[in-house]
Amino acid sequence: MPEQLRVPGDRPTLEAVAALAGVSRATVSRVVNGGDGVRAHLVDKVREAVRELGYVPNHAARTLVTRRTGAVAVIIPEPEIRIFSDPFFSRQIRGISRELTAQDTQLVLLMVEDRGDYERIERYLAGGHVDGALAFSLHTDDPLPEITRRIGMPTVYGGRPGWTTGPDDPGAAYVDADNRGGAREAVRHLLARGRRSVAHIAGPLDQTSATDRLDGYRDVVVEGDPSLVAVGDFTPTGGARAMRELLERRPDLDAVFAANDLMATGALAVLRERGFEVPGDVAVVGFDDTERVAEAAEPPLTTVRQDVEGMGRMMARLLLGTLGSPRAPRAVITPTVLVRRASA
Question: What DSSP string describes 119-188?
Answer without folding.
Answer: HHHHHHHHTT--SEEEEES--TT-SHHHHHHHHT--EEEES--TTSSSTT-TT-EEEEE-HHHHHHHHHH
